[in-house]
Amino acid sequence: MDYKIIKKYAPKKNIKKNLFFFHVPKCAGLTISHSLSTTLKNIRIFGWSQKYHKVIVNNKNYINDFKTKKENLFNTLPITSTNYTAENFYLLTSDIAEKYPFIHGHLPFKNYNNFQSRFTFTVLRDPVKRAISNYQFWIQKGFIKKEASIEELYSKKILHPNLITSFFSDKNTPNISEAIRNLKKIDIVTNTENIEQLLRYLISIYDLPNMILLNSNVTQNKIKILEDKVKIFEYFNTMDQELIAESQDLLFDFSKTIKKDLDEEFYSIFTGNKIFNNSSSLIFNEKDLNFVTNTLDKL
């Protein structure tokens, strides 16, 4: 099993604020969220920020104690796991969610405004690669059929065109200039090539344990996308491509933050499977590091 050991360092400053992660779909967000959730009490804003999903919740009185284990989440809320939006989920649970040190999920930028008490970050990705990854993932999950016309999937908004621009502006009228203005309001904007540097920075400024990083939510059995279909994804994501090109100067420079590695007694890991102590996550002492890595090497 592939993994990376990420060690924290002495940062220029420590952050006291709670965390909020604007998770753009298929930008390695679950890898980041799961890795941090091992050591930070957190809440995930479930749902897709796409208008074709119908909201079936309308009574806030049904919201009850959110301390219930996440696996029982949809038994405790008046929603189903397949028929709601992230916007509505947060609207109904914001009072509870804001009590958590770490909030993450597919909540579009304009639906969150508690910036004064949160340190915010987001991760961007090459738009065409992101769109293709999302397409392949939905096929894997059985949401769409691989025989379906990609043009039709986009026209019916089953696949959402220019999702990144929409996510940071407006899903009905995406606007590059507005998206750029909003990205400037986020504390850290980075890309999928810098995930390790991002996590290293976060565990440093929050004084969290060192981390063993594994990839989460990786699409299996990817279908090959021929060049003519790649051009379709390019066509429906031209605005996103322009946004990414124009936002390069907004990317956080991690090279200015890295100092000498600190000695750390503890490590964290999220495996997604019950490999250690019948749990999918683990915080362990440095003396057990060799045992953990040797176990991963054998998987």
Would you summarize the structure shown here?
The protein has 299 residues and is of the alpha/beta class. The protein is built from eleven helices and nine strands.
Order of helices and strands: EEHEHHEEHHHHEHEHHEEH
According to CATH, the fold-level topology is Rossmann fold
Uncertain residue ranges: 49-74, 76-83
Number of helices: 11
Write the layout of secondary structure elements.
Elements: E1 4-6, E2 18-22, H1 29-37, E3 42-45, H2 73-76, H3 86-97, E4 102-105, E5 118-124, H4 127-141, H5 150-155, H6 163-167, H7 176-183, E6 188-191, H8 195-205, E7 210-213, H9 227-235, H10 238-246, E8 266-270, E9 281-285, H11 289-298
Parallel strand pairs: 2-4, 2-5, 3-4, 5-6, 7-8
Antiparallel strand pairs: 1-7, 8-9
Helix pairs in contact: 7-10
Tag the structure with descriptive keywords.
299 residues, alpha/beta, Rossmann fold, four-stranded mixed sheet, 11 helices, 33% helix, globular
Description:
The chain is of the alpha/beta class. The protein has one domain (4-298): 3-Layer(aba) Sandwich (Rossmann fold). It is 33% helix and 14% strand. The chain contains eleven helices and nine strands. It has helices spanning 29-37, 73-76, 86-97, 127-141, 150-155, 163-167, 176-183, 195-205, 227-235, 238-246, 289-298, and strands spanning 4-6, 18-22, 42-45, 102-105, 118-124, 188-191, 210-213, 266-270, 281-285. The strands form two sheets. Strands 3-4-2-5-6 form a five-stranded parallel sheet. Helix 7 (176-183) crosses helix 10. The longest helix has 15 residues, at 127-141. The radius of gyration is 20 Å and the shape is globular.
